[in-house]
Automatic annotation (TrEMBL):
Family: Belongs to the AB hydrolase superfamily.
GO CC terms in record: mitochondrion
Range of residues in the leader sequence: none
Key word Cell membrane present: no
Domain AB hydrolase-1: 68-304
SUPFAM superfamilies associated with the record: alpha/beta-Hydrolases
Annotated source species: Staphylotrichum tortipilum
Protein name, UniProt field: Alpha/Beta hydrolase protein
MF terms in GO: carboxylic ester hydrolase activity
Lineage of the species this protein comes from: Eukaryota, Fungi, Dikarya, Ascomycota, Pezizomycotina
C-alpha cells in the first residue's frame, strides 16, 4: 500500500487568475533517480514517428535543438489545438516549441497499442531523432500522463515537465469519452459530407457546442475520390483503450522518482487532481510546484492567461 505522506513544506503565492502552491522538498531518503520497468513498460514497443509543428521564436535564445519545449494534447486532441499557446510561449520564452500529435491522433501514424508506455516511448524516440537537448515536456490530460511516464522512465532525457490537469494515479476515465466514441461512430457510418450534419448526429451525445466542435475537429476528407468526411482518429483502437487510459504505469513512488523541477497546473473546477493525491505527486515528483487555475479540465483553452503566467514563472531563468 502506498503511504500518502509528504516530506515537504508548503506555502502559497498569489498570481493573476490562479493560486500557486509551491512545495519545497526536504531531504528525502531513497530519492535517487531511477527507472521502474513494470510489465507494460519493459515489453517491446513498436514506436511511431510523431507528426509535429515547429514554432520558432522571432528572437531565439538558442537553436531548435537546445532547451526546446514539447507540448502534447489530450484524448481526441491534436497539435493544432496547441497552435496558439505554442506561438505565445515561443515568443515569450525565446524557445522553440514542438507541438506534436501523439500516436493515433492528428497526422501521426496509427498503432493498435495505445497506452502510456507506448506514447512515452514515441516521445522519447522523437527527442532522440531530433537531437533535442534538455527539453521541457508540457502535457494536458492524456499528454500529461505521457509526460509523467517518460520523466519517471527516462529522467535523464528531459530537463523538467509541466503536467496540466492530471496526476500520477490510477483513476476512472470520464464516461463521457465512451459516449463520444459512440456518437463519432454513428457519424462515420452515416457518410456525411458537411460538418453541420455531423454536429446534428453528435448533439444527443454531447450538449456542449464547444466540446462537439472540438471532437468534430478530427473529421477530414480521405483521398478516396468521394466527398464523404470521416474521422482521422481510429475510433475502434481508442475505444478499446479507454479502460486503461485512466491508469498510470508506475505504482510505487519508493522505487522511482523524478528529481528535477515539475509543475502541476490544475483547474479549480476540475476533478482530475483532487487534494488527496497531492502527497502522492510529491512522492513521485519531490521537486514539484502546484498552481490552481480558475478553469475546468480544459485549462489551456479556458484560462490561457493563467496558464501562460504559470508556465513563464516556472520556466523563466531564476536570478
Amino acid at each position: 500500500m502506498i503511504s500518502l505522506t509528504s516530506s515537504t513544506s508548503v506555502f502559497r503565492q498569489a498570481c493573476a487568475g490562479c493560486t500557486r502552491r509551491v512545495r519545497v522538498p526536504t531531504a528525502a531518503a531513497g530519492s535517487t533517480p531511477g527507472r521502474l520497468f513494470g510489465a507494460r513498460m519493459s515489453a517491446p514497443i513498436s514506436t511511431v514517428s510523431l507528426a509535429y509543428d515547429l514554432h520558432a521564436p522571432a528572437k531565439p535564445l538558442a537553436d531548435k535543438e537546445t532547451s526546446p519545449i514539447i507540448i502534447m494534447h489530450g484524448l481526441f486532441g491534436s497539435k493544432k489545438n496547441n497552435r496558439t499557446i505554442s506561438k505565445v510561449l515561443a515568443r515569450d520564452l525565446g524557445r522553440h516549441v514542438y507541438a506534436v500529435d501523439l500516436r493515433n491522433h492528428g497526422e501521426s501514424p496509427h498503432e493498435t497499442r495505445h497506452d502510456y508506455p507506448a506514447m512515452a516511448a514515441d516521445v522519447a524516440d522523437f527527442i532522440r531523432q531530433h537531437g533535442l537537448k534538455e527539453p521541457t515536456l508540457i502535457g494536458h490530460s492524456m499528454g500529461a500522463k505521457t509526460a509523467m511516464a517518460l520523466a519517471l522512465h527516462e529522467p535523464d532525457l528531459i530537463a523538467n515537465l509541466i503536467s496540466v490537469d492530471n496526476a500520477p494515479v490510477d483513476a476512472r476515465i470520464d464516461s463521457d469519452f465512451g459516449r463520444y466514441i459512440q456518437g463519432m461512430k454513428k457519424i462515420d457510418e452515416a457518410g456525411i459530407t458537411r460538418q453541420a450534419e455531423a454536429d446534428k448526429i453528435l448533439e444527443p451525445y454531447e450538449k456542449s457546442l464547444v466540446i462537439r466542435q472540438f471532437l468534430l475537429g478530427n473529421l477530414h476528407r480521405p483521398a478516396d475520390g468521394t466527398n464523404t468526411q470521416k474521422f482521422r482518429v481510429p475510433l475502434g483502437t481508442l475505444g478499446k483503450s479507454l479502460d486503461h487510459l485512466g491508469d498510470f504505469p508506475f505504482k510505487d513512488p519508493t522505487a522511482v522518482r523524478f528529481l528535477k523541477p515539475a509543475l502541476f497546473i490544475r483547474g479549480t473546477k476540475s476533478k482530475y487532481v483532487p487534494d488527496e493525491v497531492i502527497p502522492l505527486i510529491g512522492q513521485f515528483f519531490p521537486m514539484f510546484e502546484m498552481v490552481d487555475a480558475e478553469a475546468g479540465h480544459w485549462v489551456i483553452s479556458e484560462n490561457p492567461e493563467a496558464f501562460r503566467q504559470a508556465v513563464l514563472r516556472f520556466l523563466e531563468p531564476k536570478e
